[in-house]
Write a structure and sequence with these properties.
Layout lengths: L13 H9 L12 H17 L3 E6 L6 H17 L6 E7 L8 H11 L5 H11 L7 E7 L10 H8 L8 E7 L4 H5 L2 H7 L3 E3 L5 H12 L9 H12 L3 H11 L11 H12 L2 H7 L3 H17 L4 E2 H14 L7 H13 L3 E4 L9 E4 L3 H8 L3
Parallel strand pairs: 1-4, 1-5, 2-3, 3-4
Antiparallel strand pairs: 6-8, 7-8
Helix pairs in contact: 2-3, 4-5, 6-8, 9-10, 10-11, 10-12, 11-12, 13-17, 14-15, 14-17
Length: 380
């Protein structure tokens, strides 16, 4: 992975440049601290594309550990090799469980990206199965992010995703990404698990040295952070979650406490950390019970899937039931879910808008950001 330097824009101040580089959506020239994972994933995909064989790899790890970013870097490298005629042409399909209105919609999205056909989920499933049984076709690379959100009671979506590559003529490589390291053991029945194979890449949370390297790779050359300030932010985040995005957020927020020509000192990092870690809302969510956290996670999942910032209790109950299976927790009744939601509402974490009919149709809105919810409930 070549180390590509960021170009400096002379029209922007150092503070503005630093803010841009520290934004979580900024795409760096290379991804530090995940070189070994990059190599493993690259070699797995490259060997299958080169040989025209099929295979599956499961990538697991908590949020903010570079899973999707590393896979995207691998895909970028493979695309460059294809453009330079170093690799035969292949189909690239990318789906995200959070963007599917229902797990079965995955079939529709895969078929649409494969050949532009639009049809019902059942037809799409049959057409894809037939396609992967045909001879004389290009290899296909299928990236499935947020795999845990594609779980259904029958597990038919997961089964198809991992069964298709087993056909000798499929020429299909599946890369499945999830936020739960032991998702196959927790969630999948033997029928699905047996199809998946044992090739895995485990992304552990970043330690403070890695977080420090990630921040320095983006803004080190700007010399805008005083000695020890980035290390403090890195140590604080590593002690809680190891989430690189949160460390970038802290460093970016600290820039708001200085003026042009000044450097971020430890005191500015401390202010930023205090804002982020000590807010009453985050402290409350971090101390919620397991089912309360699952309800909040269910709300966040529904918001991502629908693209709306409100959800019905019926939708939350559906997500919560699926999450209970993921985390090996017994499901709870609608009445208990409603009690939890009332408690969260009384604590001002969410707002509940009554429907006038019954609790099943009441609407829920968050009084904080989805990012804060995910940070708080993933900080254990």
């Amino acid at each position: 992975m070549p180390n590509r330097k960021f170009p400096l824009n002379s029209d922007k101040s150092l503070l503005d440049v630093a803010r841009e580089r520290l934004h979580v959506s900024s795409i760096p020239g290379y991804l530090p601290c995940r070189e070994d994972k990059f190599e493993n994933i690259f070699m797995f995909i490259h060997s299958h594309l080169k040989s025209g064989t099929g295979g599956c790899m499961f990538i697991g790890g908590v949020p903010g550990t570079g899973k999707t970013a590393t896979v995207n870097e691998v895909v970028k490298t493979l695309n460059e090799m294809r453009d330079d005629d170093e690799l035969s042409d292949f189909n690239l399909i990318q789906v995200n469980g959070m963007k599917m209105t229902h797990p079965h919609q995955t079939y529709v999205e895969i078929l649409k990206q494969l050949n532009g056909t639009k049809t019902s989920p059942s037809n799409a499933s049959d057409m894809l199965t037939a396609y992967f049984q045909q001879r004389n076709k290009k290899s296909t690379l299928l990236i499935v992010d947020e795999l845990d959100l594609l779980w259904t009671k029958k597990q038919d979506v997961l089964y198809h995703l991992f069964d298709w590559p087993s056909n000798g003529m499929a020429k299909l490589t599946v890369i499945a990404i999830a936020n739960t390291m032991d998702l196959p053991e927790r969630l999948m029945n033997h029928r699905v698990y047996s199809r998946m194979g044992m090739t895995r890449a485990k992304f552990n949370p970043y330690n403070f040295q890695q977080l420090q390297e990630i921040v320095n790779s983006r803004v080190g050359e700007l010399e805008i952070f005083d000695h020890g300030s980035i290390e403090l932010a890195s140590r604080k985040v590593a002690a809680v979650s190891g989430d690189a995005r949160r460390c970038l957020d802290i460093c970016r927020r600290s820039l708001d406490f200085i003026g042009e020509g000044e450097k971020v000192k430890i005191s500015e990092i401390q202010k930023s950390v205090k804002e982020m870690f000590s807010s009453p809302v985050i402290s409350f969510m971090r101390n919620c019970s397991e089912h309360e956290k699952l309800i909040l996670r269910a709300v966040a999942s529904q918001f991502h899937q629908s693209g709306l910032e409100e959800a019905l209790i019926s939708q939350i109950l559906h997500h919560h039931t699926a999450l209970c299976s993921t985390y090996n927790l017994p499901p709870i009744s609608l009445s208990i879910v409603t009690q939890i939601i009332r408690k969260l509402s009384a604590s001002k974490i969410i707002t509940v808008e009554e429907s006038g009919r019954n609790d099943f149709y009441a609407r829920i809105r968050l009084n904080t950001s989805v990012d804060d919810v995910l940070f708080a409930i993933n900080s254990d």
